[in-house]
Amino acid sequence: AEAEDLLEVNNIEVIYNHVILVLKGVSLKVPKGGITALLGGNGAGKTTTLKAISNLLHSERGEVTKGSIQYRGEGVANLSPSDLVDRGVIQVMEGRHCFEHLTVEENLLTGAYTRKDGRGAVDADLDMVYEYFPRLKERRRSQAGYTSGGEQQMCAIGRALMSRPETILLDEPSMGLAPQLVEQIFGIVKRLNEEQGVTFLLAEQNTNVALRFAHYGYILESGRVVMDGPARDLRENPDVKEFYLGMS
Ligand code: ATP
């Protein structure tokens, strides 16, 4: 049986500053329980797509001017990022965004702020996060600002997990990380998907690694989806091989 689509983006257009048309009709679907990758080069529109979904465009003077976005069949246009968290969708932004002056553990706990199920459940989830990211446990009393780039990326994902999300929108997890760490982080994403059932939509320039871990991919070029398919097919596609897999 086909998995239910949690998220549906239908033909959206995004304009920045009233004039700059950046997304020119993007459509995609994110099935429950899958890892879906949004691929493409610098400036293709990956981050803009994720921000459109989680309603983070306003602060950038961006606007969805056409099309619609639904999560579990409900339009998200009037939902704030925290409304979305309540519905199970959380975004991990590019560049990580931990609170530098808080410790790693304090950062993780800020991710649980919307929860109403009490300290016991939150502690259990902290243990769960530490099980996936043993490195964060070792560093739990360190100020986040003094941890490495890889640790900060782990901290940002861990913090998102603390809200018990159904879906994580993950922007460029490989950015600035050494290849070995990229492998490690993608390996954890895969385990979270398989063991905790977390659905992922991830934006990634590193086509190579993304297509090894994702189930399905969409390739964006200049604000349009130019190709999509099962990751296995995209990996074998001659155009993808020539234009994307050689790159990283
Ligand atoms: P990257 O990997 O660099 O983040 P991306 O595929 O995520 O690339 P976007 O960040 O979505 O691409 O950017 C798409 C286009 O929109 C780019 O041409 C970019 O210059 C432009 N853009 C992004 N943010 C703004 C903004 N606030 N105002 C005007 N143009 C913007």
TrEMBL record:
GO molecular function terms listed in the Swiss-Prot or TrEMBL record: ATP binding; ATP hydrolysis activity; branched-chain amino acid transmembrane transporter activity
InterPro entries: AAA+_ATPase (IPR003593), ABC_transporter-like_ATP-bd (IPR003439), BCAA_Transport_ATP-bd_LivF (IPR052156), P-loop_NTPase (IPR027417)
GO BP annotations listed: L-amino acid transport
CDD domains listed in its UniProt record: ABC_TM1139_LivF_branched
Key words, A-Z: Amino-acid transport, ATP-binding, Nucleotide-binding, Transport
Domain ABC transporter: start-end pairs: 7-247
Pfam families: ABC_tran (PF00005)
Similarity-based family: Belongs to the ABC transporter superfamily.
PANTHER family: ABC TRANSPORTER SUBSTRATE-BINDING PROTEIN, HIGH-AFFINITY BRANCHED-CHAIN AMINO ACID TRANSPORT ATP-BINDING PROTEIN LIVF
Protein name listed in UniProt: Branched-chain amino acid ABC transporter, ATP-binding protein
Annotated organism of origin: Roseicyclus elongatus DSM 19469
